[in-house]
Design goal:
By secondary structure, the chain is α+β, with helices and mostly antiparallel strands. Helices cover about 45% and strands about 20% of the residues. It has a 4-stranded antiparallel beta sheet with strand order 6-5-4-7. Strand 1 and strand 2 form a beta hairpin. The longest helix is centred in the first third of the chain and has 26 residues. It is elongated, with a radius of gyration of 20 Å. The N and C termini lie far apart (about 60 Å).
Length: about 180
């Protein structure tokens, strides 16, 4: 039996990194300004820096978390994304991804992950485990966490290209 309402639990889970970062910053502030100068003061500065980094990273991750409960399950194992849905699914290696798009016209919105070895993988943004895609996408060269968050928060009317493999960019530029 839990004494915390489910909506509060969901909010705490969504913003957990930012909350932990804020707590570490408060401890750092206390150690810097609340105790007499010494070794603990230097540790306090370190805690302030680490807490701020965790706080701002947690804000980005929290904004990107949509929540679960959608159709299907996402698993990421050894640089391979797997989606197991009620009607379709598949797997794609991170190295085989050619582009990532977000399609806001589908309900729920879907990530469309194109690959050079097979059909595109369509993953609902609210599928169980889809929040793990944030870190996976951020590991791609040239794709920043801020861009992922901005794309997720965009209520566009057409699919948005989030990332395209660099060798494809060169091929497309030669065609035009």
């Amino acid at each position: 039996m839990s004494f915390i309402r489910p909506d509060v639990q969901d909010a705490l889970k969504r913003w957990r990194e930012a909350l932990i970062g804020g707590a570490v910053m408060l401890v750092g502030l206390y150690w810097v300004f609340g105790v007499s100068p010494g070794l603990l003061t230097y540790i306090g500065y370190l805690a302030l820096f680490l807490g701020a980094a965790l706080f701002f990273a947690g804000l980005q991750r929290g904004r990107a978390r949509i929540g679960g409960g959608g159709p299907g399950v996402v698993q990421i194992v050894e640089r391979r994304i797997g989606y197991f849905g009620p009607l379709d699914g598949g797997m794609v290696d991170l190295e085989a991804i050619t582009s990532i798009r977000l399609d806001p016209t589908q309900h729920p919105r879907h990530w469309i992950i194109a690959q050079d070895t097979g059909p595109a993988l369509h993953i609902p943004v609210n599928a169980e485990g889809a929040d793990m895609l944030f870190d996976t996408f951020a590991s791609l060269p040239g794709l920043s966490p801020g861009r992922i968050t901005a794309t997720l928060n965009d209520d566009g009317t057409a699919p948005i290209v989030l990332w395209r493999r660099s060798d494809l960019e060169k091929r497309i530029a030669r065609l035009h």
